[in-house]
Amino acid sequence: MKKLIIVLVALMGASLLAEGSDITGKWTTWKKGDPPVVLQFQSSGTALMGTVRIGSLSLEILDSKVVGNQLTFKAMIPEGDDHYPMKFSGRRSGGRIDFKCDVEVNVPGENVEFGPACLARIAVKRTGR
Q1: Can you give the pTM of this predicted structure?
Q2: Which residues on neighbouring strands pair with residue 79, listed in sequence order?
Q3: First-residue to last-residue Cα distance in the chain
Q4: Residue 51: is it exposed, middle or buried by C-beta count within 10 angstroms (0-12/13-18/19+)?
Q5: Strand, coil or helix: what is 95?
Q6: Which 3 state secondary structure label does DSSP give 19?
Q7: CA–CA gap between residue 96 and residue 27 (Å, rounded)
Q8: What is the pLDDT of residues 1-40, one digit of tens each?
Q9: Rounded to 5, what percent of the chain is helix, strand, coil?
Q10: CA-wise closest residue to 59 among 74, 43, 72, 71
Q11: φ/ψ (deg, to 5) at 97
């Protein structure tokens, strides 16, 4: 009987941990002065799908990866007739994710580099599932 109780407690704990690590849902900025950003995530294992909404601009999440509490993805930002990739690198802590944002700077003949973005850093919190 004791073994059964231990197994049940372990299973309940594992399901609570799995639920807590899921980032699926709606995340938004809330700090005064931060631009209005809404992230809608759907996660499956290490894959992340969804959208980034900055004001009225809605962008698809690309090249995503989730490992533990770290997540990275790109979104293509339109500028005139062209697009440039913005990279989001975040760390989750509970119901909050802090992101550092960089833009890809491509100099012909050189390696891909990243430079500072207009959204240098943002913090989002979960506001829905």
Answers
A1: 0.74
A2: 82
A3: 37
A4: middle
A5: coil
A6: helix
A7: 8
A8: 554 334 333 434 333 333 346 899 999 998 888 788 999 9
A9: 15, 60, 25
A10: 74
A11: -130, 130
